Structure formats: C-alpha cells, structure tokens
UniProtKB/TrEMBL annotation:
The name this protein goes by in its record: DL-glycerol-3-phosphatase 1
Gene Ontology molecular functions: sugar-phosphatase activity
Pfam family, one: HAD_2
InterPro entries from the UniProt entry: HAD-like_sf, HAD-like_SPP, HAD-SF_hydro_IA, HAD_2, HAD_sf, PGP-like_dom2
Organism from which the protein derives: Coniochaeta ligniaria NRRL 30616
CDD domains reported for this sequence: HAD_ScGPP-like
Amino acid sequence: MGSVDNAGGYSAPPVQVTFDGLLFDMDGTIIDSTEAVEKHWHTIGDEIGADPKVILQTSHGRRTIDMLKILAPEKATWEYVQYMESLLPLNHGHEANEILGARSLISSLVSAAFSSWAIVTSGTLPLVTGWFKVLSLPYPPSEDLVITAESVENGKPAPDGYLLARRRLGLEAEGKKVLVLEDSPAGIRAGKAAGCLVLGLVTSHSLEQVRAAEPDWVVRDLGGVRLVKADGKGVTLEIRDAWVGETE
C-alpha cells in the first residue's frame, strides 16, 4: 500500500467519540490486497484486451462492473464479474494481509456484542466472502449487513451503499451519528454524501489525496483506533495520532 511522503503531522491528542454505528470499507481498510489485485488485473487485462496499468490507476474504491462498462462493455455482466472476483482470493489469497489494527477493532466489537456495524464495499459477494474466509476475519452480525457491489444501483463515490447500510441498521435518521472507515477518496466522498462522519486511512492513497476528500479524521491505519466501550447507547472509540497541520 502507498506510504505518506510528507513529514510529520500524525500527532493529534487522543479523542473519544461515541457513534450509533460503524460502516467499514473492506479493501484498504480491513485488508491490503494490493499485490494480489495487481497480479489479478494483469491476468484479466490480458483476457479482456485492456491495459492493466490503466485499470489499476482508476479502479480502487470503484466497482469492477463500472470499470468494465467503460473498458470492455461486453464483459460488464454480474455473472462475469462475480466469477472473476471469486478467483482473486483463491489464486492470490496468500498475498493479502490485514490492515494494522483492523482485526483487533472488529474482534473487540464482536466481543462486546455490538451489532450496529456493517461492511460496505465495491467488491462482489464472492470476493468479500472469499477474503474473509482466507484471512479468518470476524464477519458482520448478519448477511444483510454486508453491502456489496450487487446491492446497489450506483457504486462509490455515490452514497448508495452507505445509505443502504444505514437503513438496514435502522440508523437512517439525520440525528444518528454514524462513522465510515475508508481509505479511497471515492469511498470517503460516498460516506460524506451519506451524511456520515468519516475516518480516512492513508493506506492506498497519498495523504494529499485522502485529505482532499475531506474526511473528519485522517490516520495512517487502524492501529490508532480502539474500542473504549459499547452498549445500547452506541460505541465509543478512541482515535489516536490523527493528522494535524498542513502538508507543506
């Protein structure tokens, strides 16, 4: 994953914030599948006659089917997308890693029996279930709290996925405080458009790109985020070492 190329800045004092629900992106937020995805897209690019470099420059945070509508319209079917994405964890699962702090945070939610959290991803259901199985990660409380590419009409940066997750959690009311955890500018913008607060991770994009999408906090990864408490009133997180100051 990309690294920050600006000096300093991750020095904000710890803050504790209570939310009604948490919405996690997957790739770049929970898992790092960069190497696996690059190899996969080189194979698929050759198959569909598209330049893998072009695909990789524009695909992160966006649905494969939306990319194929532009690059190879004849392949832009759910049947093909689900098939090709199901191969990624099977063929390249050993090349994926967890984002620092992701397992700990999700496991703490499960241990606290906090159920108001969901996954909202641009990947298809076969891709999500494949990665969670390969990495043995805790799954959301119910199947309908896994919002995938097939779940919505419009992918990120449209807010559809996050709005659907809020609705399924019963948190669609304007006064509900929902946190989106995202790494891509497209996903950050989707979360903001859905009326959520957003924690931006600098894992797949540069600090400048993440900040330009205007998340509420910016952190390197989830290593500085921990559960303080979870109960019927919500979940309180502590956010440490967030970015402060300018990049110059």
